[in-house]
Amino acid sequence: MIRYTKTTILAVALLFVAAACEEPVQEIFDGVTPEELAQSTDPALIDVLKASAYNRIIGTWGGHNSLWSMHEVASDEMVVTHKGADWEDGGQWIRMHRHEYNAQEEAINNGWGYCYTAIGDMNLLIQQNPNVTALVAELKILRSLVYLWLIDAYGNVPIVLSTDTDATPPTRTRADVFTFIESSILDNISELPTENTKTTLNQWSARAILAKLYLNAEVYTGSARWADAEAQIDLIINSGVFSLENNFFSNFVTNNENSSENILTLPYDENNANGFNIAQMTGHYSTQATFDLQDSPWNGYASLEEFYNAYETNDARRNSFLAGPQFALDGSPLTDDNAEATDPDGPGLNFTPEINELAPNSFRQAGVRVGKFEYRVGATPNLSNDFPIFRYGDILLMKAEVMHRQGNTAGALNYVNQIRSRSGIAALTTLTDDILLAERGREMFAEGYRRSDLIRFGKYNDAWWAKDASNPSVNIFPIPQGQLDANPDLVQNPGYN
Question: What does pTM read for this prediction?
Answer without folding.
Answer: 0.93
